[in-house]
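User: As part of a screening pipeline, I want to sanity-check one entry by hand. Below is the sequence and the SMILES for zinc ion. Please return the complex as structure tokens so I can compare it with the automated output.
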Amino acid sequence: MQEQGGNGAAHWASAACRDFDAQLSDYLEGGDRSAVAMHAAECAFCGTILSDLLLVRSASTELEEDEPPARVWANVRATLVAEGLIRSPRERRRWVEWLLSPIPAAAVTAFVLLSVFTTRNLLHRYHQLAAQKVVRLAVDVDPGLQQSVSEMEAAFRAHSAHLNPTIKRAYEEDLESLNGEIKECHDTLARQPDDNLSREYLVSAYTEKARVLESALELGDGDGR
Amino acid sequence: MASIPSRASKAASDAELIARAQRGDEEAFAALFEVHKRRVYSLCLRMTGDTAEAEDLAQEAFLQLFRKIGTFRGESAFSTWLHRLVVNVVLMHLRKKGLQQVSLDEPDGSQDEPVKREYGDDDKRLLHSIDRITLSRAIEGLPPGYRAVLVLHDVEGYEHNEIAQILDCSVGNSKSQLHKARLKLRELLRSQRLPASMSGS
Ligand SMILES: [Zn+2]
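Assistant: Here is the complex for your manual check:
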């Protein structure tokens, strides 16, 4: 910039100003550069730079966060659903309905065979029992399914010590609430054996419990790898 | 000290949400998004200086996060994990766009130019306060390399050794780029403020 006349604002860097420039960065990073503060107090121009930079720094630190537009979540959600990472309650219901509906024996066989290859023994047995249940269209919850779920629960209790305590607690809370539901269904059915809705809820609760336990056991399994 | 219990309870609630999200619970995904969306989006916005790019990158970062959520074992704080992931997504994007300036050890010529120091015409204190819109706009106007260091250090609170690791440069380089970035930011704020003050006098 060219030199300005008039009010005496014209200023060219002195040797002290150049030292100030060289040490300013360290000073702002918390380094002990008392010469910087001393020069800033004596030189109006450098004092202005220092106060401006302190203000820029503090304003940046306190910069508020912005709200993303709602479409960001809408897009994320849609992708998660498409990729099957989100399983909506409706989908879970559909899955239960599927379990309760008659399907060709060939599909059941394929399902069971797939289970053999993809799950551990316990999980495998649960799938097998669930599949058998479909074939028989039993009105009652298969005692085998109940037994399988209780074995999975025992396995979970035995291994849950290895889980992160908070994750473990989350699973336990889920199980507690499902056990409550199951008990309620059993109580209702003891009084009204013909209450088909309760029977359906009971199957659904057992299925959900098996799903929760499956997830917990897989997580525990993953930790050990 | 006062922040420790709240941080601990936040970590606990994150862990619960993570466990539920791992089981496909939509509400848990939505809650995790809700808790972290502002910081993630703002980081993307400040690093790119462009709202459309920031939206895409925030979306991409959350998707990467949720796809990997099954592998999260809680060894590090969830928010640390998330923010590192966001920074990586943004830097990958900037590098793909061909902005080599982001790599601070190979600065391009324009960035090494000393920031102009104008003596003579304005010795008054320039800035008494900076409103957030003006500041955000000025940060968006910084060259990408300067912007990255300034956002990571001054806005996001990363240390120089972390920035050096993230941007694959030396600690000294991170420090010197930060200083230049602040001077450049001051210059941008000065130029944004000038028309108003000139019309006033
Ligand atoms: Zn001076």
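Points to compare against the pipeline: Residues A 16-17, 20, 39, 43, 45-46 surround zinc ion (CB under 6 Å). The radius of gyration of chain B is 20 Å.
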